[in-house]
Amino acid sequence: MNKFTLHTGIAAPLDRANVDTDMIIPKQFLKSIKRSGFGKNLFDELRYLDEGQPDQSCEGRPLNTEFVLNQPRYQGASVLLARENFGCGSSREHAPWALDDYGFRCVIAPSFAEIFYNNCFKNGLLPIVLRDEQLDQLFKETAETEGYQLSIDLERQLVITPSGEEMTFSIDGFRKHCLLNGLDDIGITLQSAADIRAYEEKRRQQAPWLFDAIK
Amino acid sequence: MAGKTLYDKLFDSHLVRTNEDGSSLIYIDRQVLHEVTSPQAFEGLRLAGRKPWRVDANIATPDHNVPTTERSGGVDLIVDPVSKIQVKTLDANCDEFGILEFKMNDHRQGIVHVMAPEQGAILPGSTAVCGDSHTATLGALGALAHGIGTSEVEHVLATQCLITKKMQNMLIRVDGELGLGVTAKDVVLHIIGVIGTAGGTGYAIEFGGDVFRSMSMEGRMTVCNMAIEAGARVGLVAVDQITIDYFEGRPFAPKGEQWDQAVSEWRGLVSDSDAEFDAVVEINAADIEPQVTWGTSPEMVVGISGQVPNPDAEKDAVKVDGINRALKYMGLSADQKITDIQLDRVFIGSCTNSRIEDLRDAAKVVKGRKVAANIIQALVVPGSGLVKTQAEQEGLDKIFIEAGLEWREPGCSMCLAMNPDKLGNGEHCASTSNRNFEGRQGFGGRTHLVSPAMAAAAAVTGHFIDVRELI
């Protein structure tokens, strides 16, 4: 997994609530059996005017020029500003894969859907919760200043604006540790293998039917 | 000290360890796998040289991509080459790792959340996961079930555990009696309308009160299925005699002496009378009428006697923007009556509403009637091969076919249109599925979520109508 320590990049504002996972990556692209290559179809139905197909080149497709990521000033953006309940809907990890593959390292919103929020951490993508009024301010400053960049300092848990204003965010200790060090969850959990076996032993006595084989 | 909620009991009985930062490792009794969210997990295992912790704790079936038209020719005849690769990849992975899979043409194949309970593969008091947000469905069985992402699918395969954080407890009580023609689907759509699409975020929701106590297992599964549409990863219904009767004789349910032992443990799977919930929502059953969604989020819902909202009546700027976008996408106008919405297609199916009771409800309405002339297509897609067989034994297939609906093979179908069943651009669909997001059922498609009875009523009249006028 990619490490996340300190990041500075252009902020792009996606000013709508309840952005769902179908919007982030439409279902026809979930047929891939790979983890990569979803970036060109990120927000496909918002970004292009036609219906996208898997394995199709996106060069020459008609662009929705009003969509924020198609505007020249937001090219190369790596920090996405969003509104409440971002990532609601399905559990598809293709959503963070697509954001990551496009080049986003961080999404800032007042709230996230839980499964999406979880999935981000498994892929080195940092979801940050700030208050509504802080988001309002960031949306406003982004609109006012072309090339507006935000810095994210994960160690200190800060979003830093170009004027030096610091906004603190919270994050679970375990998730922070994994992101800072690019650690793989499975490796960490397997260090508790003895605890897992002990649990199984005890539980098997209480509820043996839960250990019947599915075959 | 206050008593425990059902969620607390399920969580505590699966706790392997708690970490210093408050996250927990919980043991997962069963994992259900399908073709869309598992290939990268199996690939991850292979790349890391890891083996599944407990192969026989997993069960798999392809559902999202499978065609629902005649398919006796097998996987090789799936027309879409990318879908075909995905289904074949699941088959190959299950064969390689030795995981039980009901392949496409096995009579037990079906939508994961229909197949797993009907097999008794998910039991009361167990924990279950699946790489699918609608895994919330399984909470209706008195099991703690989480929808997870692909990295977590791999994590559970490798460790039989999930890293999670204990949720808060919410109780949604619906007391009183439901009116004629008001079903489990209407109850849950109404609840989402009340608490909003993020109202349950961070909570495990227990559905309690008279309405759920007298509801069938099928109905309870419909309700828990849509807990995720209210933002909650987990929906639960306490175990009672209805639950226990449902499991008796199921293929993977315990037998003999173990059955008696299991039942006596399952009877304790209820919230203690002195348990404290972090949030309580109370709803009067008599206030619920048949529901229809008008917009592009499940919270955009009204009763059949209502009308499309007017953004001028809303103060919050983000909400006004949401209503305006939804009206534009849906091609509706403010204050339009719900019964004036004309439909193009009807879809009866999905993990929300494709069980036998759902098909009976729909058949009762269409019996002796014909699909309206303006309806291009009306699909009935049973949730599993076993549901299909039972419906055919009851003669439901003939009722649908005589009325002009199509009777299909089991799968997810038009709920998310990964297979060939989809809406055309701009078409309105009365759908018994769970999400009305933009493009969900096809590019530019316009979804209205309803109960099976309401979808059937729409099929025979061509527009929304209060099903109570037809029954």
From TrEMBL, chain A:
What Pfam families does the entry give? Aconitase_C
List, in alphabetical order, the GO biological process terms annotated in this UniProt record. L-leucine biosynthetic process
Against InterPro entries, the record matches this protein to:
3-IsopropMal_deHydase_ssu, Aconitase/3IPM_dehydase_swvl, AconitaseA/IPMdHydase_ssu_swvl, IPMI_Swivel, LeuD
**Where in the numbering of this chain does the Aconitase A/isopropylmalate dehydratase small subunit swivel domain appear?**
1-132
Query: Which pathway does it serve?
Result: Amino-acid biosynthesis; L-leucine biosynthesis; L-leucine from 3-methyl-2-oxobutanoate: step 2/4
- Could you tell me one molecular function GO term of this UniProt entry? 3-isopropylmalate dehydratase activity
Q: Which PANTHER family match?
A: 3-ISOPROPYLMALATE DEHYDRATASE SMALL SUBUNIT (PTHR43345:SF5), 3-ISOPROPYLMALATE DEHYDRATASE SMALL SUBUNIT 2-RELATED-RELATED (PTHR43345)
- This protein is called 3-isopropylmalate dehydratase small subunit
Taxonomy of the source species = Bacteria, Pseudomonadati, Pseudomonadota, Gammaproteobacteria, Oceanospirillales
UniProtKB/TrEMBL annotation, chain B:
Q: How is the cofactor bound?
A: Binds 1 [4Fe-4S] cluster per subunit.
Q: Which reaction does it catalyse?
A: (2R,3S)-3-isopropylmalate = (2S)-2-isopropylmalate
What does the entry give for GO biological process?
L-leucine biosynthetic process
Q: Which cofactor does it need?
A: [4Fe-4S] cluster
The enzyme's E.C. designation? 4.2.1.33
Which parts of the chain are coiled coil? Answer: none
| Start and end residues of each Aconitase/3-isopropylmalate dehydratase large subunit alpha/beta/alpha domain | 8-462
UniProt keyword list: 4Fe-4S, Amino-acid biosynthesis, Branched-chain amino acid biosynthesis, Iron, Iron-sulfur, Leucine biosynthesis, Lyase, Metal-binding
Q: Which Gene3D superfamilies match?
A: Aconitase, domain 3
Enzyme's top EC category: lyase
State where [4Fe-4S] cluster binds.
351, 412, 415
Keyword Lyase belongs to the record: yes
For this chain, one GO molecular function annotation is:
3-isopropylmalate dehydratase activity
Q: In which pathway does it act?
A: Amino-acid biosynthesis; L-leucine biosynthesis; L-leucine from 3-methyl-2-oxobutanoate: step 2/4
Assembly, per entry? Heterodimer of LeuC and LeuD.
Q: What protein family is recorded?
A: Belongs to the aconitase/IPM isomerase family. LeuC type 1 subfamily.
Role description: Catalyzes the isomerization between 2-isopropylmalate and 3-isopropylmalate, via the formation of 2-isopropylmaleate.
> Which HAMAP family does this one have?
LeuC_type1
Tell me the protein's name: 3-isopropylmalate dehydratase large subunit
In which organism is this protein found? Amphritea opalescens
The organism's taxonomic lineage, starting at the top: Bacteria, Pseudomonadati, Pseudomonadota, Gammaproteobacteria, Oceanospirillales
